[in-house]
Specification:
- By secondary structure, the protein is α+β, with helices and mostly antiparallel strands.
- Helices cover 49% and strands 16% of the residues.
- The protein is built from 9 helices and 9 strands.
- It has helices at 21-48, 56-61, 79-92, 94-114, 117-128, 240-274, 286-314, 320-345, 356-365; strands at 134-137, 153-157, 160-171, 178-185, 188-195, 201-205, 217-228, 276-277, 280-281.
- The strands form 2 sheets. Strands 1, 2, 3, 4, 5, 6 and 7 form a 7-stranded mixed beta sheet that branches.
- Helix 3 runs antiparallel to helix 4, helix 3 (79-92) crosses helix 6 and helix 6 (240-274) runs antiparallel to helix 7.
- The longest helix has 35 residues, at 240-274.
């Protein structure tokens, strides 16, 4: 969804007019940050497989951590505003959107929703200000799409809990100050806040990735990790806890994938208008025009879907099935758009001089 200048190529139906002034301002501000601070450096970070930590202060200054949450220093903006910010961040790179999503939707949200007053006061203001970071430990080496099969356990021992298990594919794992670990306590899934440096808790970065290379991905290992009893989230039991968090994050993805698709389309359109073959730009050939038309059509449909789901969420009417439909459609179409855009650029499409191959690989993860 184009949220800035009227000359933007990806707001075919004028969806910008359906946004509130505040939502438009969020889009414009985040897009400017992406253009000024992220686009010039992200290709190099992707190539070197490093996370652009130098932009964290800028993200914090704009209030992007937990921006859709209320209180404790959070911005308290609408779900649609959060979606637009996710879209613009992923237009820069999926690693940046993932970083912010994990912080706000997978760690801050459950602390706010299910944590004790002490946990909220301790972590939320620092996390909103970008002074502390979190990760979400749910997925295990043998249990990804089946979280109920998790083998990580917790047992009560006096005034402590002792955790044992492994978590894998954990975004922000090695840079997090606190990990929200989901484990089975007497057979019931519970959440625990495990601080960095706790004896028995280690995080190891997963290397040799070809997707989300500008993002930190880790394996967490807990071996007789003893934590205070005050670290358990008191407000939720069972899979409701992690699954409600995942709904929040997947909402960000259904918007974020649009940002990746928009970036690919804009890059392909610009290239097609300037690449001359047989004495005219390749945008003048109907085969290329059909590709561009199909891309823009799917982007526009995805924008309408995302906006409607966002409005339902703000009205308290959204369901997990709504979010699932939006994520399924928008990621699927973004993948198709990335691949089609790459074909327009020919061999140039596989280089990091253009954003397309980076988005194409990132989308394999989301």
């Amino acid at each position: 969804m184009a949220t800035m200048a009227p000359t933007a190529h990806t707001d075919f139906l004028g969806i910008n007019e359906l946004l509130s002034p505040e939502e438009r301002m969020v889009g414009e501000t985040v897009r400017q940050l992406v253009d000024d601070k992220i686009q010039p450096i992200i290709g190099e970070h992707f190539e070197k497989a490093t996370f652009p930590r130098e932009v964290i202060p800028d993200l914090a200054k704009l209030g992007l951590f937990g921006m859709h949450l209320h209180g404790y220093g959070c911005a308290g903006l609408s779900s649609v505003a959060y979606g637009i910010a996710s879209q613009e961040l992923e237009r820069g790179d999926g690693g940046l959107r993932s970083f912010c999503s994990v912080q706000g939707s997978l760690v801050m949200y459950p602390i706010l929703s299910y944590g004790s007053d002490e946990q909220k006061e301790r972590w939320l203001p620092k996390m909103a200000a970008g002074e502390a970071f979190g990760c979400f430990g749910l997925t295990e080496p043998d249990f990804g799409s089946n979280p109920s099969g998790m083998v990580t356990t917790a047992r009560k021992d006096g005034d402590s809990y002792i955790l044992n298990g492994r978590k894998r594919w954990i975004t922000n794992g090695t840079i997090a100050d606190v990990a929200l670990i989901w484990a089975k306590l007497d057979g019931q899934v519970r959440g625990f806040l495990v601080e960095k440096g706790t004896p028995g808790f280690e995080a190891y970065e997963i290397e040799r990735k070809m997707s989300l290379r500008a993002s930190v991905t880790a394996e967490l290992v807990l071996e007789d990790c003893r934590i205070p009893s005050t670290t358990i989230l008191p407000g939720v039991q069972g899979l409701k806890g992690p699954l409600t968090c995942l709904n929040e994050a997947r909402f960000g993805i259904l918007w974020g994938s649009l940002g990746a698709a928009m970036s690919c389309y804009e890059s392909a359109l610009d290239y097609a208008l300037n690449r001359v073959q047989f004495d005219k730009p390749i945008a003048g050939y109907q085969l290329t025009q059909e590709k561009l038309v199909n891309m823009l059509t799917e982007i526009t449909k995805g924008q309408l879907l995302a906006l409607r789901i966002g409005r339902l969420k703000d009205a308290g009417k959204v369901t997990p099935a709504h979010i699932s439909m939006g994520k399924m459609n928008n990621v699927r179409e973004a993948l198709k758009i990335a691949r089609e855009a790459r074909s327009i650029l020919g061999a140039n499409g596989i280089t990091l001089d253009y954003p397309i191959i980076r988005h194409m690989l990132n989308l394999e993860t989301v």
